[in-house]
Amino acid sequence: MKTHLTVALSMITGIAIGASRCKACMPRQNRPVYTISEIQITDNDAYVKEYVAIAQESIRTSGGKIIAGGPGTSLEGAPPATRITIQAWDSLQQAQAWRNGAAYKKAREIGDKYAKFRAFA
C-alpha cells in the first residue's frame, strides 16, 4: 500500500511539474499579436512620398515591429490588394492603442487620400 501511495504521489508531482513548464499551456498574453493590412493604393507615388514614412514611424514609436510590407503573392484564392503589411505587437491592446493614437490618425488622414485600407489582427 505504501509503495502504491509513493508511486501515485510521484506521478502527480511529475505531472504538475511538466504542466507548469508546458509552453503550449502558457497564457495567451505572452504571445505576440500580428496585424495585417491589405491596402488598395490609388496613387502610389503620393502614397509612398507622403504617407509611408509617417505611418511606419507611428508604428515604431508605439512599440510595434514591422515584419513585412509590399506586394503579396496569392498562394490560393483571390490575389491580395496592391500592398500587404504585417506588424507584430506585444498585445492586442497595444495595437489598438496605436490605431487610436493621434500619430496614426494624422497619418491616416494623408493615407486615406491615396488608398483604401482593410486591417485585422
Short description:
With 121 residues, this protein is of the alpha+beta class. The chain has helices spanning 2-21, 44-61, 92-100, 102-114; strands at residues 33-41, 65-70, 83-89, 115-120.
List the helices and strands and how they pair.
Layout: H1 2-21, E1 33-41, H2 44-61, E2 65-70, E3 83-89, H3 92-100, H4 102-114, E4 115-120
Antiparallel strand pairs: 1-3, 1-4, 2-3
Can you walk me through this structure?
With about 120 residues, this protein is an alpha+beta fold. It has helices at about 1-20, 45-60, 90-100, 100-115; strands spanning about 35-40, 65-70, 85-90, 115-120. About 50% of the residues lie in helices and about 25% in strands. The model has no long low-confidence stretch (mean pLDDT about 85). The protein has a four-stranded antiparallel β-sheet with strand order 2-3-1-4. The protein has four helices and four strands; from the N terminus they run αβαββααβ. It has a single domain, classed as Alpha-Beta Plaits, CATH 3.30.70.100.
